[in-house]
Write a structure and sequence with these properties.
The chain has helices at residues 2-6, 13-20, 30-43, 48-60, 67-78, 85-91, 108-123, 127-134, 140-145, 153-168, 174-181, 185-195, 227-240; strands at 171-173, 198-200, 205-207. The protein has 241 residues and is mainly alpha-helical. The chain has two domains: 1-95 and 107-154, Serine Threonine Protein Phosphatase 5, Tetratricopeptide repeat (Alpha Horseshoe), CATH 1.25.40; 169-241, Arc Repressor Mutant, subunit A (Orthogonal Bundle). A three-stranded antiparallel β-sheet has the order 1-3-2. It is found in: Cytoplasm. It comes from Laccaria amethystina LaAM-08-1. One of its GO terms (molecular function) is translation initiation factor activity.
């Protein structure tokens, strides 16, 4: 997983050169990286390091700053939870110079607390509260203007919940899992079928396939002490006595 985070298999050779080479700080390349971000948005791909490179260029060159690009970067990072991607992005915005040359008011200061709140809910696995907040009237503007453009955003959030459930459960009620995924009825069944998770019809319980995270295994610790070492310990104790 670490290797795919550092170098996603979908990253092109051109982007690899921009992200890994000295040219990453060349402001003339920002449009290439921005185009790559919008490719990620359309194709459900994700490249954190390439997106961080955009934020670093904005930090060094405030005149390049594009709030819509920043918001889209944060939305992509949001669905990487529990990885630290979102906080890495925020760290590059904390001391961002104010760009007064924008034609319209900057939407980021208003949306940033909202996105921080959504990230906190995902990170703490409070999935039902996340969906309630996300579906609220207060976040209608976020949905209509931003997340609607991020292809597969809601399924990417569901993938965050799935990762948490796989790590913590071997069995979970369909109702509870549905509240985590914001799905019910045939939609929930279709989603679980795609995952390969079975539902026990008799009690509406979803069976989570075994994986290294949800299997409890006893750990046996053995210590090997050789006879000469034991003799030294005994003699040392005898001298103290």
């Amino acid at each position: 997983m670490a290797s795919s985070w550092i170098t996603p298999p979908t990253r092109t050779e051109l982007i690899e050169d921009l992200v890994s080479g000295v040219d990453r700080y060349n402001p003339s390349n920002v449009s290439i990286l921005e185009d790559y971000l919008y490719h990620q948005i359309r194709s459900e791909e994700y490249d954190c390091l390439a997106n961080l490179a955009i934020l670093k260029l904005y930090q060094f060159n405030p005149d390049l700053y594009n709030p819509d690009v920043v918001i889209n970067i944060l939305l992509k990072a949001l669905t990487a939870s529990p990885l630290p991607d979102f906080n890495l992005c925020i760290a590059l915005l904390d001391e961002r110079p104010i760009n007064t040359s924008l034609d319209e008011p900057d939407p980021l200061p208003q949306l940033l607390p909202v996105l921080n709140g959504l990230h906190d809910l995902l990170y703490r696995c409070r999935f039902p509260t996340f969906w309630k907040t996300y579906r609220s009237d207060e976040l209608e503007s976020l949905r209509d203007n931003y997340t609607v453009e991020v292809v597969g955003f809601e399924n990417a959030v569901r993938a965050v919940a799935v990762r948490a459930v796989k790590a913590a459960f071997t069995r979970i009620s369909a109702e509870r899992l549905g509240s985590y995924l914001d799905l019910n009825g045939p939609d929930l069944e279709a989603y679980l079928n795609d995952l390969g998770w079975a539902i026990e019809r008799s009690n509406s319980v979803v069976v989570i396939p075994p994986n290294p995270d949800n299997q409890i295994e006893a750990t046996v610790v053995q210590e090997s002490i050789k006879l000469p070492q034991l003799a030294k310990i005994i003699s040392h104790s005898a001298l103290k006595a």
